[in-house]
Amino acid sequence: MPSLQTLPPELLSQILTSPPLTPHDITNISQTSRRLYNFTADRKTKLTIHIDHRSHFLYNLLTTVLKNPQTADRINRLIVTWHRRNPQHPKSWTPQWIWKSHELEKIKSICEEYNLGSEVYDVIEDGFNSEALLPVLLCLTPKLEHLDLGCISPGMVYGTYSVSTAIRIFKACDRTSTGHNYKVKHNNTNKQLYFDSRWGSTYRKEILWLYSVLSTSPSGGRNIPGLANLKHFRHGPQYPKRKKSTGWPAELIPKILSLPNIQTASFHGASALDPATGQYKPISATRECMSGKKSSVKHLELMGCDFSYQDYPALADLTGSLEKFKCIFSRPAWYYYGAVDMRMALHISNTFKPANLKTLSPDKITVENLHEWRIIYTPAPDIYFPFQEIDEKEDKAEQDKKLKEEIEAKEYIESRIWNEEEEEEEEEEEEYEQYTHDYECDCFNCLDYLSCGDDEPYQTDLEPDEDVSVRTRNVKGTKKRSHFVGFN
Questions:
Q1: Per-domain residue ranges of the chain
Q2: Which of 224-233, 386-395, 438-447 has the weakest average pLDDT?
Q3: pLDDT by residue (tens digit) across 22-31?
Q4: Tens-digit pLDDT profile for residues 20-66
Q5: In 143, 243, 409, 445, which residue has its Cα 20 to 30 A from 102's Cα atom?
């Protein structure tokens, strides 16, 4: 079998660009020889990261990057997939990861250098939410040009759940003693206080830490290396949707459009609502990060976003060099003036066209109105998920185990029912035999047969007189006493 050293450059390039190879693998290959080092020096890597997957993918990736920061220099594209803990599937309850002291020191210095905030470091140290590792990874990927967040799942627990359910899941995932201090630290009746103190109210409000970093950073995230050179950004819809909101907060859009090198931006399922209060928050309230500058974005997509009339002019004012604009809107369920669809489409077109008069031609403007269920989000076609076969095997093993337990439980219940029927038949036979014995035997009419209760008077063959059981007799003195007469 030929080695990598003897392969021609064309075949070697095809092998090194295969999806299974991670930046860590490329770094190991480059260290084998001078030829492979020169060949992989300028190679760009596409990487798919998996949030909260039980394989601890993002945690293992970050520990590798902290050991050898050069591995992150090759990352050119990031695709994010979400694997939150599902209350119905205990196999998805990703256990807590434990950091080493020198790793936490490096992470803390990175958070301080790029103003990520102390709260992000506390969450990373906690070891439950790998989504908090994404801002740190962006600080270590200076050559990143493509970022695809995919169909996001902000909540740490998938779907609708209660605080008690979340605490039960987190305690099951806990690998330290910190998760078992509930009765010591807090009152048993105030579980909300415990939930917020351990994992933060932002978890409950389902706000991504990437949003928090962009909102609290003085430069709006422009100082983060992974965002400073970002050219292509894609944000999918939120799934599952929250009760009080139809999508993720639209206040992130001006932050992304303010990045210095952004060229294409696609936003699916944004909503002009405040994630903390659930009230309407216009996009114009978050435009201060632009400082009067125009965005460098050339292609802009707004798919299924829940905006009002005044939000579209606010977004159009941020643009100035659009070459292509596409907007597919649906009827807002919470803020709608009642205008016809044609009037809304005309309003959007007439808003973006004057703002990009020199670069945006009418044939490059697409504005449509579709129902919400017809707006389909298509994930990235080149997602690489190496754990699919392993997950399928584990899920199948779990289903087989559950099916086996159900069959055993059913057989046990049937056996208990069968045993109870046999016991009832045996009891009926014993009662029938006793009845036959009493009917055929002379002892049924015998006086010695005690047919009454213990507290009732009964007859014996020694006292045929019924009145002899209770008598009175004279006693010396002035009083008479009545009592039972005993027999010797």
A1: 1-43, 45-386, 387-428
A2: 438-447
A3: 666 776 777 6
A4: 666 667 767 776 777 776 666 667 778 889 999 988 989 999 998 99
A5: 143
What CATH number does domain 1-43 carry, 1.20.1280, 1.10.3470, 1.20.5, 1.20.120?
1.20.1280
Task: Look up the pTM and report it.
Answer: 0.72
